[in-house]
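subagent[fold] <- orchestrator: predict structure for attached chain, return tokens only, no commentary.
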Amino acid sequence: MKKVLPLIVLSILPFLLKAQIELDVSHVVVSGDEAIFHVAKPISYNLDEVGENMEWDFSGLQSVEVKKFKYKAPDDKIYDNLIGFDKGSVDVSGPFDVATIIPQDQLPGGITMSEGEMFFKLKGNQFCNVGYLVYYDIERYFLGLQFQEADVVLDFPLTYQKEFSSHAKLEKKAMPMYKIIIDRERNTVVDSYGNLKTPMGTYECLRLKSTINEKDEFHAYAQNINIDENQQYYEYTWMAKGFHTPILKIIKSEKGTIIYYLDDKSNDDDKGITEISPYMNNAISISPNPMVNDLTMSVSSIINLQEVSVYDINGRMVNNQEISNRMEAGQRITILEKSHGLDSGIYFVKVLAKEGVVTRKLIIP
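subagent[fold] -> orchestrator:
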């Protein structure tokens, strides 16, 4: 019996060690962090299985888009436009898709909103989303949106079976022009731990499931736009030791599923993906997309163009033009001829100028 007990202890030791996964407050993004994420083609996967010593296999995910996020402390210019934010209230910001708040197809003609900034603050042991900064294409206008009560995204330390919740609400009015309301309830549980496989490798992770009930309102009175939407969606987040960002994140709603996975092995030059420039993002558009004729680029602001490159889905450069050209607002040029010889599929067009860099997804039918 004395010999059997050590064998039993040794046999269960790996499971005992794995159960000790705990992530402390060091596992959050800080100013200066950069992360490359792949947007993956949605797949069917049973996300309802939970528990200890899980084995999640997402190694077959196929990338359809690549994004690079650079997290930074906002500068004075941004603070000036964020009425209500003080310099001690926001630690880090990162790009987000403003269409998650205001559907683009419901905006009036001529008004578009580009990617903005999502603001976070570490409040004690809670990592919170405290607001947004939205960029308008019209006159490069900035709109700051601040939660009165923060949206708690992470509550440290993170351990198996931990639960936490928050109720965040923001209201922005500029009567009689517009009113924006976001009312978000988030309930999160760390429901599993185990090994996660992605196309990048295998990681020992905790999984968080957040159930989010949200009410969004957007009223633009002059244009007679009134959006009032109630939605429930789920966020599944896999966190691992040594990483400031999730290894995998899945967002599920009635509108569909979005999958992001971290690329912790990419070289920026190999992928052709560069830092997002809000100025360039607002100034440049390409058409037609899908590309049925010559691909052209137009600008809404002055830019000093230097280079246009096209990359395939694997990050391989398939077309490159060095262009030294000052483009005036409203000007249009051809950047890829119809007789390009490229196969049908998804590509990325990277535009480099003195003012910054922007990447656009291109579909060739």
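orchestrator: received. Logging for downstream: Confidence is low (pLDDT under 50) at residues 1-18, 76-114, 266-276. The first helix runs from residue 4 to 18.
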